[in-house]
Backbone:
């Protein structure tokens, strides 16, 4: 079998290769670690919790990589779907589950002070934009957050918001337009 350049492989290819090549999942992990940690940091504002949630998400992704279907969406959307479910489950239970990590034999997560500081800094560059996002009208904020920050597709958003995809698209378009008007021009030149 020909050796695959993992650094140039698509996300979907990395997941497809994972059962036979553990390095493939390592590359996938490296591509998304920062984004997943930032996702959890924005929602919890606790570095230790963000790291714990991210660890469980990647363990679940590793376990289910073989089931990833690129016909149903991107690998990024798939991974963040796992992240959203893990976060919702953690809020409901009041704790982070570690079953997937235990099944894989991954020991307890130890997060140093330095690591916690780095996690907290992940979102620093986006904090101004996120503050502006909070100023949008509720329907636009939810739509922009769902589409841009969480990277959910329009169909899923429409279903969760009980409206049509065209309404969601309009809310996203209006929200992004309002954000563009409020951003300092130096941020997007």
Residues:
């Amino acid at each position: 079998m020909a050796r695959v350049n993992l650094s140039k492989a698509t996300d979907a290819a990395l997941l497809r290769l994972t059962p036979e090549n553990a390095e493939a999942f390592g590359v996938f992990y490296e591509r998304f670690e920062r984004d997943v940690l930032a996702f959890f940091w924005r929602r919890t504002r606790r570095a230790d919790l963000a790291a714990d949630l991210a660890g469980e998400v990647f363990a679940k992704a590793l376990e289910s990589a073989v089931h990833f279907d690129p016909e149903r969406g991107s690998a990024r959307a798939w991974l963040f779907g796992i992240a959203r479910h893990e976060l919702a489950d953690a809020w409901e239970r009041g704790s982070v589950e570690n079953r997937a990590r235990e099944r894989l034999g991954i020991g307890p997560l130890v997060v140093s002070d330095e690591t916690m500081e780095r996690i907290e800094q992940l979102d620093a560059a986006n904090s101004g934009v996120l503050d502006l996002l909070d100023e949008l009208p509720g329907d636009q904020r939810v739509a922009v957050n769902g589409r841009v920050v969480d990277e959910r597709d329009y169909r899923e958003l429409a279903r969760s918001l009980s409206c049509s995809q065209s309404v969601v698209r309009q809310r996203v378009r209006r929200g992004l337009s309002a954000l563009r008007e409020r951003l300092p021009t130096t941020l997007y030149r």
